[in-house]
Amino acid sequence: MNQGKFDSLFVNTYARGGEAIVSGKGSVVTDAKGKKYLDFGTGIAVSALGHGHEAIAKALKDQAAKILHTSNLYYSQPQIDIAKKLVKLSFAEKVFLCNSGTEANEAAIKFARKKASAIDPEKFHVLSFEQGFHGRTYGALSATAQAKFHEGMGPMLEGFHYAPFNDVAKTKKILDAHKFAAVIVEPIQGESGVNEASVEFLAFLRDYTKKKKIALIFDEIQCGTGRTGKLWCYEHSGIVPDIMTLAKPIGGGLPLGVVLATADAVSAIAPGDHGTTFGGNPLACALGAALLDVVSKKTFLKEVHQKGEFLKAKLVALANGGDSITAVLGKGLLVGARFSAEPKPILEACRASGLLLVKAGNNTIRFLPPLTVSYDEIDKAIEIFSEIVAKTELK
Predict the structure, then answer these.
(1) For a Cys staple, 305 with which of 21, 194, 229, 283, CB 3.0–4.6 Å?
(2) Strands of 21-25's sheet in order across
(3) Closest Cα partner for 111 from 182, 166, 46?
(4) For 298-339, how does the pLDDT look when each residue is reduced to its tens digit (9 = 90+)?
(5) What's phi and psi for 248, nearest 5 deg?
(6) What are the residue ranges of helices labelled H in the chain?
């Protein structure tokens, strides 16, 4: 492929490489030259059921024959179907459907600020956490406490503050200094290296925000929808937010973002306060409902947990056999291998050898296979990965 020729067509926002991916089945994708790859990146945690899953294919065919788009001025049966499932399966009483994770976070922030403004016009501040990632539109970007994403894009929006992740004392000091409408946190920070929030930290946030009438928002865009071996990541701690945002796998491979909330958390919102033309697209909702039917089963989630433990054990054994991997992190099939130096050469060599992985911050490589991955496929991925780690010197 003449990469230069095609790169000239696009705004330079991605460092693409290799041949175009043209097809996939299960945990394997195939490029334009017929080369096959184990897909342990799944479009950055999107393709939860792998490629060509029969439930997704059936929902796609059935809904495509009915209607692809209708306005949110009208009811839509696929929206009703997925909303019912989401409410039944979570803490939520209300659902807002949009197109992406960043849109879900934008909506969550707006919903929280609207409610807080009725209490006090100065109660508009939003707290998020260092190394977190919440999206690239201005509200979500302002909540993303990483300077590299802000560079050249400023100024960020007013009222956003950042605290160290998992630091109760410093977080409380910042919370005490302003009138906050919302606290937004990822139970597991994916983009910055699979960093888990401690139960103690989440418990503090829940207690403080409840006392001060602050909306607690969990961003489960990457760590939710079965990825960690439970349907929702908050189930591991038992700490329930007021609002939760979802995206990535929830549309079955199509763009879909979701805000789940208690009725009280969104009680200030009225028609016209927020909206979306394409949000809750009938096709994406139909695929999402089909995905939930599969992923929400207890037997399925138990298998995700077991496969995750199997994968982590393999990586821990590899780490113990050398000095380049300094930590193995994560839950379920959201697993990170952290290295002592920049691991980009390992990532590139894995791709050349037929294994797709995803880099994260803090010198971490993420393993995000389909939740349907087999043990044999995990073994094959570890075989490729181990050989490359053994022969690659990092600087």
Answers:
(1) 229
(2) 21-25, 28-31, 36-39, 355-356
(3) 182
(4) 999 999 999 999 999 999 999 998 889 999 999 999 999 999
(5) 40, -100
(6) 3-7, 42-45, 54-64, 77-89, 101-119, 138-142, 147-150, 168-177, 199-212, 234-237, 282-295, 298-320, 344-352, 375-391
Q: Which of 332, 323, 345 is nearest to 372 (CA)?
A: 332
pLDDT surpassing 70 at residue 73: yes
Q: What is the CATH number of the domain that holds 303?
A: 3.90.1150.10
Residue 311's domain spans which residues?
A: 3-52+298-391
110/146 same-domain check: yes
| Assigned token pair, 59 | 């929902």
Please give the structure tokens belonging to residue 102: 């960043």
Q: Check whether residue 237 and residue 134 sit in a common domain.
A: yes
- Measured CA to CA, the distance from residue 258 to residue 249 in angstroms comes to 11
Four-point Cα dihedral 377, 378, 384, 390, nearest 10: -170
User: 241 and 109 share a domain?
Assistant: yes
Convert the pLDDT of each residue in 338-374 to its tens digit. Answer: 999 999 999 999 999 999 999 999 999 999 999 999 9
- 75-118 pLDDT tens trace: 999 999 999 999 999 999 999 999 999 999 999 999 999 999 99
Q: How many folded domains does the chain comprise?
A: 2
In the listed set 259, 278, 295, which residue is the last one of a domain according to the structure? Answer: 295
